[in-house]
Amino acid sequence: MLSLLLTVALMLSLLTVSTATPPDAAAWRPIRTLLENWQFTTEYAISIGTADHGQLFVYESGNFTMDQQIPTGSTSKWPSAMMFAGLVGDGTIRSLDDPVHEYLPYWTKHPLDARSHITLRHLLTFTSGFGDGHPGFEFNTRAARAWRAGRTPPRNNISRECDLESGDTAKCAQSIYSGVKLIGVPGHVYSYNSNHLQLAAGVAVAGSGLPIKEVVRRYLLQPFGLTDSYYEGRCPDFAGSLVTTGRDYERFLHSLLSYRRHPSPALILESERDGTPFLSDQYTLYGNYGFGARTHTTSAARSHFLMCFDSAGGYTDACADARSHFDPGAFGFIPVLDRKFGFYLNLVAAETAPTGSYPLSGIPEYLAVGLKPHVEAILSQRPPRAEEHLHHNPAIAGLSLADVNYALGCRLHPDSCA
């Protein structure tokens, strides 16, 4: 009971800031002007909203719309992790901290085998120890390209049981268990790869007794209201094969921001805790990790990043204070959730054919990072005058000269970013 009360108290302390009266249309005109003059990305959409008021601003560029179905790449991870957390929400799986061996009969229970200590939380925070990987091997930004220079990519899981079209989710999980070695102690090592969520899918199928497509429908599509989304393949890659629209992903972000829907307020809060505090002093490109996403905050579990973008100082106090989360995708889909100012920023792009060009896929996240301070300013208690958004203003400057150099270089010389 005490634990429940503490969880509720902590959740209330993190409730999003919300304005009684949302900014009017005039307040967003500078944002529209900035986007109309952005020359580095042409086919994309952006939506911005708050928990209380929903969508406050939307912008669609070129022929791109919020209803365009596109691949997401790693932006799949956040919805996938919250989907699997939903099985804890309805009691199908008792706890995030249940050992996986309680659901998968082939999994070792021997206490001297480190795998026996792996929990669902470890899988959703990518700290199970299975396999190797780093976001630097996947993304196409300046920082990612610099990081992987001279490094050898990890070996991908080539098991036929995990093949997108011919594989089987349960057999895929077992093949990872038997064929992929641990690289460290569960809970104390982080690796960015598909193994963790494929294992979580195996747990979900075994624990629920449902086929994987029904798990997806019951725990993701239906509760979050995703009407135009699906995972590709018979054996989906839950870390990268979600196809969705900006409108559907906006529903997902609003659900998390408002704490009002699936899986539960307590589990949403759990998902935003820091799952990799041991990375805080390291350069990690995006920040520490939670349930399937990256964020700016301190605490215990996520599959997204706790946002600390390209920080040479690691996960800093300033990043923790910003309390922001994001889940960048390899093709330019960049969703951001800002708890401090109480908004979501949904940048929807797919810099891959037919909606874009892969050499430009590293650019959209710079647009999201650059735009975020402007949104914070508009939603603050003392918003700046419109012209302050359109001139040099250090208080709302989100990009560095190095960032501009990269974006311009890719635009002028795309072969250098291919």
Automatic annotation (TrEMBL):
- Keyword Signal in annotation: yes
* Keywords assigned by UniProt, alphabetized: Signal
Quote the Pfam families the UniProt record gives. Answer: Beta-lactamase
Q: Does the keyword Signal apply?
A: yes
The record's annotation in InterPro entries points to: Beta-lactam-related, Beta-lactam/transpept-like, Diverse_Enzym_Activities
Task: Enumerate the Gene3D superfamilies for this protein.
Answer: DD-peptidase/beta-lactamase superfamily (3.40.710.10)
Looking at the record, the residues that make up the Beta-lactamase-related domain are 47-259
Where does the chain cross the membrane?
none
Q: Where is the signal peptide?
A: 1-20
What name does the UniProt record give this protein? Beta-lactamase-related domain-containing protein
This protein's species is: Emiliania huxleyi (strain CCMP1516)
